[in-house]
Amino acid sequence: MEELENIASQASSKTTSKLKKPQTRLIDTYAAQCEICFRWRVILKQDEYEEIRSKFNEEPFVCGRIPGVSCSDPTDIKDEANHTWTIDKPGLPKTPPGFSRSLVLRADCSKVDAYYITPTRYRLRTLNEVAAFLQENPEYKDIPLENFNFKVPKIMENTVPACGVKRVPDSGNGDKPTKKAKTYAI
Q1: Positive or negative, the Cα torsion across 49, 53, 59, 64?
Q2: Residue 155 pLDDT > 70, yes or no?
Q3: Nearest-angstrom CA–CA distance, 85 and 105
Q4: pTM of the model
Q5: Which of 5, 31, 66, 76 is the most exposed place for a label (fewest CB within 10 A)?
């Protein structure tokens, strides 16, 4: 608990921001790859996906985990140029009850940002903000800080749409990004 108080005290006075509008580039489809047949299976609910991800190292995903699905069924997801793929890290903790974890792809497709949305609809951007929220809201004090993780999925660069642009340094002064370059596209 002392660790929680120390982290919370480091957070600034504006620890949370009330959600203003929904994000437009949210990660909206979750899938897992079967360890046996290597086919991709859509996981319909985010909490089911998080359960699979949190236990993946001890209990790898197999098609039979989904009722009525087997390795002989065709893959759920085909390689399509209109999808940007990200690969999540296995073993991340499942989001605590009442909170939701939101992953937002930046407009230039350079990075994914992770946020936690509280039951009171505040968006938390850092572990310090989470600690401050837990300290300020005693009804959530029993949730361990370790249940929040801001590690983000890796973007598979060959799936970034042609509209995704990354800034590259100008060859003139090296430190000021002024030119734009398209990222890889299928």
Answers
A1: positive
A2: yes
A3: 10
A4: 0.66
A5: 5
